[in-house]
Amino acid sequence: MTLPHPNTDQISLPIVLGVLGDPTRLAIVRYLASKEGVPLNCSQFLDLGSKTNLSYHLAKLREAGVTRAEVVGTNRMITLRRADLDARFPGLLDSVIAASADDPALPAVGGHDLEVTA
Amino acid sequence: MTLPHPNTDQISLPIVLGVLGDPTRLAIVRYLASKEGVPLNCSQFLDLGSKTNLSYHLAKLREAGVTRAEVVGTNRMITLRRADLDARFPGLLDSVIAASADDPALPAVGGHDLEVTA
DNA sequence: TCCTTAGTTCAAAAGTTATTGAACAATTGG
DNA sequence: CCAATTGTTCAATAACTTTTGAACTAAGGA
To answer: Domain residues of chain A, as ranges?
Structure first.
């Protein structure tokens, strides 16, 4: 039960940009970046939409090569593909994350500030 | 006859990313970046689509704050809003342009290489 | 003034993306 | 085995985006 992911060299710039051009998905990426190293399961994101809708957005991110999802039991552990994105599009992810960090219009995950101690 | 543009602080990250997530518009931005300082009119881009369709894509870019269009006679002179984008989203435009420079899947403007002498 | 050039606007059609709920599958724990 | 948990898939719908052609506006030159 492994899920399909593009290889690094199959990651496409317009597709990545298009996928990030959605507030829900940008919020997911921003949250993943703030918890880098910690694999998160889908239910962490339920603030951002219904379970079905998140499944859709997380699949878009995965298919674009922005995230990686590993099946662990009944969970999908989701991580940012930072190294792959940095290799393919140097500086892009950093600038997107930095810019998203001070965007008050983006939905928040957790209903609390990202700086709250974990 | 001035066209509507967002102020710098009204430029939105998801909207900019969404607008750049289209091969035609990315090709326009890439070409504008390669000719920075030289204002271009719309007909420069006719390789990328019909006049009507380009009017649509150029309006999207302008409304998102990515380009500026100035009316000069019967022409619209189009420039990249690099300073505004750099101020709002540091590093973003540079990384997008650098990444788009080596994307063979993007349509080309002019039917010749961008490095051809002007 | 009349014609041309440059680009917009409008309405329709076609295509794509987002959202929902109900049903499904896979794993884990009792 | 049974039930709960986690997440997917499917079909429907709603909403948006892209593309087109015909009609239009505005400026400039003959």
So the answer is: 8-100
Identify the weakest region by mean pLDDT among A18-32, A87-101, B10-24, B36-50: B36-50
* Cα nearest neighbour of B90 on chain A: A95
Q: Look at residue B112 and tell me whether its pLDDT is greater than 80.
A: no
Chain D positions with any atom < 7 A from a protein CB:
4-10, 17-22, 26-28
Q: Tell which phi-psi region holds residue A34, choosing left (phi > 0), alpha (psi between -120 and 50) or beta.
A: alpha
Question: What are the DSSP calls for A61-80, one per residue?
Answer: HHHHTSEEEEEETTEEEEEE
Mean pLDDT per 10-residue section of chain A, whose length is 118 residues: 91 98 97 90 93 97 97 94 98 98 88 38
Residue B80: enclosing H or E segment and its boundaries? strand B75-80
Cβ pair A15:B21 closer than 8 A: yes
**Which pTM was predicted?**
0.93
What is A8-100's CATH topology?
A: Arc Repressor Mutant, subunit A (1.10.10)
Would you say A85 and A11 are in contact if contact means Cβ atoms under 8 Å apart? Answer: yes
CATH 1.10.10.10 fits B10-101, yes or no: yes
